[in-house]
## 1
Amino acid sequence: MTHYQTTVREPLAFEGVGLHSGAPCRVQIRPAAPGTGLRFVSSGVEIPALAEYVVETARATVIGKDGVTISTVEHMLAALFGMGISNAELLVDGPEIPVADGSAKIFAEAIAAAGVTTQRETRASFVPSSASFARDGDRLVIVLPAATFCVKFVADFAAPIGTQFFDGEPNGDMFLKEIAGARTFGYVHEVEALLKRGLAKGGTLENALVFAPAGPLQPLRWENEPVRHKVLDLLGDFALLGAWPQCEIIAIKSGHKLHCIMTQQLRSQIGAELPAAKASS
């Protein structure tokens, strides 16, 4: 299947607080020329949205270059990926991307409302000829040849979340309606631990789904909202592949660290076929 490159039809701006820093943050998405790819700009430094530039994956995906870092890029990247955007310039003011409501909903809906411009050049695709995998203990990501892009995700958490499963093709309308609104989540005791570590300073019940022993403190958007958010994170991380993944991804209990290992592994295997991991002059 031939995919054409796309960009946002008009600039879009978002502002709010950062989930972990609690600091004011702003990001503007600007249309970009064919072949540009997704590129962040912060403090005058251009950082390509490619796996080589990931510098941390502990609680979020953080990219960096020349001493400049941008945290929590996964929800924004998931929105761009899920809505089919291949070229965009993202101007960031602040240490991370605004958390919004803890999902990619506001970003994806804004892209859909503004519209997408299809460009004449074809989009690079990653079409694996054989299986690849990355493992970290009992966590696993497998990439298999497939006719279309699809994801199977098994999430397994302590009660009251339990084991949840997702199987689908999370892009376009399906992404917008079924994945984009899934919020970041955690347990009450985890939130307390993060605050003690100086993280989650911007977290509130307005931008994160919190589970107490008896159940969620807010109404769920879907019964299996946690696994949908894990798929959202996976999409944002796989946007760092720099090409459209025509493959099947099977993820078992995976997270940012393993996604990064997998995308870096794939880019090293097929680097010559993908956009160069360097900033334009």
## 2
Amino acid sequence: MNRRTLILAAVFLMLAFVAWRLWPAGQGGTEAAPRTSALGPTTAPPPARVPVSTDVNLAVKAWPPEERIALADRLNAPDKDIQSDLRVLNDLFQAWATNFPQTGNPVGENAEITAALAGDNPLRLALIPRDHPAINARGEICDRWGTPFRFHQLSGRRMEIRSAGPDRKFATADDALFSP
């Protein structure tokens, strides 16, 4: 081998090594190591993958839009109760987790979470229609009495959901809570 061939082989091996180190986790092969610089890691290692339900009712990504929206249709249905509404919201968060396994639950205040569930997300996946009757003029998902739900992130995968109840005041005896 001549010197030029050796240099090209060394450059190729270095590029292959760098590509292997930077390859995104979950894209096949082994998990990528965290990127490092002279100052240490530049990003945190990817979060551990949390198993999510494989229940066909939650794997909404492959559903046609009209069936995805059917899940949200049960929210604030007249023949249901607040506990059913809380379970529907939890199902929406589980559907989110199924479709966005690396990101965790949507974050922010009610309006930001609602926007993400309504399609303001990387896949433009609407789990609830923007014009759903449970969404108020400020873009917040509301309980059956018109009070915006409160969402409290317990972890990347667990969301506590609270309704103020019929008296429309939080922290009273009639509040309804879903805590996974």
## 3
Amino acid sequence: MGRVAALSIVDALAAELRQRVFAGDLTHADALTEAEIARTYEVARPTAKAAIEKLVGEGLLQRGAHKTARVLHLGPDDVRDIYRTRAGLESQVLRELAPTRIVPADAVTANAEIAALTDGAPLSVVEPDMRFHTSLVDAVGSPRTSRIFRTLVSEVRLCMVQVQGKHLLTTSSIVAEHQQILDALADGDGDSAVAVLSEHLGHARERLATVLGESGPVTALPEQD
């Protein structure tokens, strides 16, 4: 018989801190010390330290002097590097999926959820959008590729938290481009799927880079309807 693994205190604390980061409750301005975390959550300092180290390992927090951790602050160069890596990885995934004409059901469901969004909150689209892309990567069936991609997803979510309140892309444009990717996969056309993906990620990359403080020239993009 299989065993149900109990969630450790460290994992539970790390999950709580992670959620606060993604919700924007914790920002780069907040100093997260082991003593403060231990006091706030009424846990032992070694537990607080382990939870902080877990998020440092995930790339969500960075350590400073005197054991102080802060939420990672991402700038324009970081955004471009993240999206360059995403584009390479996801393009390969689409090329592998296309010959099999695999259209992951989870991706279809996630895109439908985006289409149904009505609250207009910029962060509300992030979870289903990331789930759409993650489901494509997972469909390849490589645990290592999926694990690497989830690190990128965490950093993308950090980017979006930093620019919350900014409507960078409309849900209709996101849904339309997602659907084009799914249609290309269904047709077995990997090149078309990759072309749409490149444009899709390019829109997000340039607008994120601009909002996060790009000082040099940035490619102008038309507004999406």
